[in-house]
Amino acid sequence: MKKISVESFFQQAKERLRLTPLFEADMRNRSIVSVDINRMGMGLTGYLKWFPFHRLQIIGKTEIHYLETLKPALRQKTLQTIFSKKMPCVVVTHKMKTPPDVLTAAKKYKVPIFATPTPTTKFISEISVYLEEEFAPEMTQHGTLMDIYGVGILILGNSGIGKSECALDLVERGHRLVADDLVYMKRLANRIVMGSRSEIIKHHMEIRGLGIINVESLFGIGAIRDKKRIELIVRLEEWDNKKEYDRLGLTPATHKIFDVDLPTCVIPVRPGRNLAVIIEVAAMNHRSMKMGYFTAQEFADRVGRIMAEETNRKNRSKGVL
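The structure corresponding to this sequence follows.
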């Protein structure tokens, strides 16, 4: 089971979530183990039977106003009971002043506590997105990821087939490189597969006969991006005269990444074929299909109508109808 230390969480998310530490003890020894978060509401009323102590805890305006209604002895007892459990950390939202009893309980049981000026509902939304990304299933894939006309295209193929050379041609034509050689992928919510680059390789490419090049320094910041949703897969393979390749596109192939079936184009490679242009057209065709315009099906329907009309015309001329 994946887990993130509270110290790592704070260092990575402090700017994004606008976190300020109020008590930082024991952050290395406490971990966030779930993408879910929990508001302390019911726990503060004393109902702890189903209280999810393992989740990151949130105290908002409602919780603090409720605590102010309790008598000091009951408030201290309630907070001591909750904070004595093994919870990862607590975040106080909405620019609320943290009650002294909350800080006292946090310090006694060494529970890290943070504050954020973000309103509770908005903060829950933001931290849910952050945790979803951090806990998302991940894998690596040998290939090249490009942003072409706004479509994230993962180019696959055997080593030496020409993936990097094709990507370089696409960059020179104004498209953006996300990752070359090694693509990191995460499966986010709503069946989204997000691809990003390796921190070691970054925006470098290996071109056989030329060596390692830095795309950012050669083509500028506009030629790269850090991550992109993968929407289409293009697989390059050596041309096989014995193989029948799809010539109409009526039944698009798919390739499964995690549990997501992504549309796939298989492009045979042989001298004289302009792969960059073909992949550009694949990106434009994918965008067209997303908008409901299926060229292959429209063509097949039109051919069918013409053939039917021709058959009817011949039948009428023979007096069949």
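The first strand starts at residue 4 and ends at 5.
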